[in-house]
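DM from R.C. (forwarded with permission)

"hey, sorry to bug you on a friday — could you get me a structure for this? deadline for the figure draft is monday and I only need the backbone to look sensible"
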Amino acid sequence: MEWPTVWVAAAVYLPIVVTFALIAAGWVPWWAPTPVLAWCVAWQASLQHEVIHGHPTPRAWVNRLIAGPPMLVFVPFDRYRDSHLAHHVDERLTDPLDDPESWYVTAARWQRAGRLERGLRWMMNSLAGRVVVGPLWILGLSLATDGRDLAAGRRLCSLALHSAQLGVLAVVLSVAGMPVWGYLVLVVWPATGLMLVRSFAEHRPDPLPAQRTVIVEAGGAFDLLFLSNNLHALHHERPGLPWYLLRRVFRDGREGILARNGGYRFESYAKMAARYLFSPRDHPIHPMFR
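My reply, with the result:
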């Protein structure tokens, strides 16, 4: 049992429960604590990532219970698990055909894209655009993927479970007195945007797979929110390492890790924002597919 992760789970869910109770009791208006909920829901997404990598217990079903509730609404847990584990094939990182978490496209896909899609992709290649528009993009992709799975008869049990969990969440929101639209707009949207801050510059196209993954040496609140996954190059080197050991291992081996990832690093997310807040990182077309 990895107790630091269990305590994180408690720290994630307790404020959510207390917040819903306060709203239901009429002690606070439903919209007032939404920033707290958004932070906790984003934190739960980091907890889901930890669970996907086999933490905090040896039993997958227990881990699933800990992080399974779809607080971010969009993506069924099973699909997130499968796509994320496929993403960990480092030789295919950023490949728009083989990396399910790639934000790049091939030149052929770019040629087929309309003016609106091209504009959105350019917008999401800046940090501000990724945070604001990215959640809507993910929602659209998720709905399209679910539709294709239903039409093909795939993941039916997973989709049924996800739908049932969303039904429970809707009942909880109704009992608490928070409108579903308010939860989606003021909790899910900003929570997803927070997670997209972490993933914005996580990977770059590079001929060497080891040099495709970033290190962001952010500490404090962001390091805790992302469960040290901002030390992403180290996570890809040792994906089974629990989050609370990443910072120590990075500190002890910093020079070697940065040498292996080609020095791809940011001192902080503030420094990243100063560079890319409104400026695109690169072209949406993957350089190997131009």
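R.C.: lifesaver. The longest helix spans residues 127-152.
me: no worries. The chain has a mean pLDDT of 96.
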